[in-house]
């Protein structure tokens, strides 16, 4: 039986090991003491109960995540429905609107709301109608900033809708979002819902008990334990396969699959090819701090307006801060004595330190036109071996080059390698 090394234990690495373990002798290397990547559930004790909620990967839906749901079915993991809903608010101006408001007809909106929201409402409807046509006409392969400029969208619409929506979906700061490929931004809302993660035209679901439950389940089904706290230092090709060097030694394998972030993958490969440097070198990442807490100061005052996904904005010292807070009680459908929040890139709002449960640091990609260009060649990386690459930075082959950046793209890239190695 040939030997396969898999570097990384996220949504690409563990499914690949599960599906290939009868054909290969597999070692999964994970530098952390925790397995699962962005599938990270926090368990919080409240009295004699244990509350579980996610801090990175949270929701998925069947139409857009078919491979992920098939994997859940194969390993025996259950999901539950999650009723979406979004809440936009500006802590300075008091502007607030939510998903229900966008369900109203124009006459009702103009009769009930002030001019600020009426403008955003009409521009949002124009954006989703026009952008769909422009996408199919090939007019959206430009930075988002350029697309908005070319089509005359107001600054208010950008600040109070586009930036908040995009920051929520891709966990990136406002300034990075304007360099984002317009086609990728538009494609997400076309295939998912114009309400983004809070949209209600698709049935969103969460993993019962949190996403870490699928990680625990697949771990229990693997024939060999995952080698945690063993960092891979390099992966080198030679005539006999690959040599994997870790901080604990080195070993030879017939093949290796690097299931990490793109920049990490490039750093691991000894003597990368020109193609690997060209494609993987186009991806950049930034740090995202996620704060789990119980301080409602992060949300607008009226609790009746809170939704699963809350997109906020505040100006401090002349700088506009955007932030996303998901209301864990509502997302995971549990009742509790306290309200629990997961906030990304929390603004300077002086959270009560006594109400902060944990701060978790993640790395997220900052996509731009260079990463979109990389998608045109990305699947060529895996044509020859013996080193293969996978991760959420790959687009789903049958969905076009804009379909990347999510759990589905991560597992789809792994399954493509599974199919390839199963034929060998």
UniProtKB/TrEMBL annotation:
SUPFAM superfamilies listed in its UniProt record: FAD/NAD(P)-binding domain (SSF51905)
List, in alphabetical order, the Gene Ontology terms for molecular function in this entry. Answer: oxidoreductase activity
Q: Which Pfam families match?
A: Amino_oxidase
Q: Which residues form the Amine oxidase domain?
A: 12-275
Which superkingdom does the taxonomy of this entry point to?
Answer: Bacteria
Gene3D superfamilies hit by this protein: FAD/NAD(P)-binding domain
Spell out the InterPro entries in the cross-references. Amino_oxidase (IPR002937), FAD/NAD-bd_sf (IPR036188), Zeta_carotene_desat/Oxidored (IPR050464)
Q: What is this protein called?
A: FAD-dependent oxidoreductase
